Amino acid sequence: MLWYQKELPDADEWKLVDFNVAWDSAIVDVTFKGIRYHLLLSRHKKVSACAENDVLLAPEASQATLDEQKVQISSVCEKMLQLYGRHLSLWLLPGSDSSSASTSELDVARLAGYYNGFPCRRQLRTVRGELLSVNPAKHYMRMHGHPVPNQFPGLPVFTKDRLVVKCRPELDDGISLVEAARDANVGGTAAGDLLVMKTVYRCWLEDIQDFIREADVLGKIPSHPNIVGFHGLVVDGDGLVDGILVSYLDGTLLPDITQATLAERERWKLQINAALSHVHNQVDADGHRSPVAWGDAKTGNVIITAAGDAVILDFGGGWTYDGVEKKDENTVATDEKGREMIMNLLDNLPPPGEGAVIGGT
């Protein structure tokens, strides 16, 4: 039995993925009977003596040594799982083949993608002296991004029951690898296609506009071989947009490339310039030039694929350079500053034999 499975029902069914413990809250990422949960406890500031406060770190924990803090954090994780384990009936989802659950319960869980690897958020909280399962959205929405209305007409839409989360670590916070389910042939995306899902939950509250911008820009740009492919929007059970789907690219980010032949450097320059020309020379419905800005033009948003091609990524915008005022963000002029930095990096890459190659990721 693993340390965190102590005193848990069906102990072997609990698989700890990650946990994050602070003084005022704790989140445990765990799978139980094949379903992934993000379990939350938040300090109750109105009721000092309650189950959640008994689990969370005591105020004096900040004075502990580093080794003591590690022990305390592990203890919070263990006690938190035990608390959730004692109250399974409050928060546990029915299994996909449950005979006791109602059809509506199963449909809601299926649409939310809970049977396909999407995490189910749960929070236990004391309400009028009784421990209950409450909607954790209020906790997350204080600081983090939340789903937005679909303001992108005509774009392909995926519900989560038509996507399968791959069982591997996230590519980054709020970015997961998924594949289209068997019946999810939408907008040219075929079943089994490997995709990257970027969610709004990875944004801070003030950065939701970056998420909206990326969905809008990628959705309006016609496809191009040197721009990351866009496949569609991901919506929650209420039809609100909480994710975008782009192509998964196997390769190496440009800053991690430490050598290249002259032919490779020239090839990548041509491809990056072609991608920028494509976005900067868009036209509107009346045929008038209507340039779109990359907005996040920097070396870290260029990937060299396993096939040896340069592809630009990340259209969320917001990247600034020294001397660039906020009003000039997300403009073609600022893109040109990024282009200059990218070309300078390429010009200074040493030829093979003078640098160590970093393999593809």
UniProtKB/TrEMBL annotation:
<dbReference type="InterPro" id="IPR011009">
    <property type="entry name" value="Kinase-like_dom_sf"/>
</dbReference>
<protein>
    <recommendedName>
        <fullName>Protein kinase domain-containing protein</fullName>
    </recommendedName>
</protein>
<dbReference type="GO" id="GO:0005524">
    <property type="term" value="F:ATP binding"/>
</dbReference>
<dbReference type="InterPro" id="IPR000719">
    <property type="entry name" value="Prot_kinase_dom"/>
</dbReference>
<feature type="domain" description="Protein kinase">
    <location>
        <begin position="164"/>
        <end position="361"/>
    </location>
</feature>
<dbReference type="GO" id="GO:0004672">
    <property type="term" value="F:protein kinase activity"/>
</dbReference>
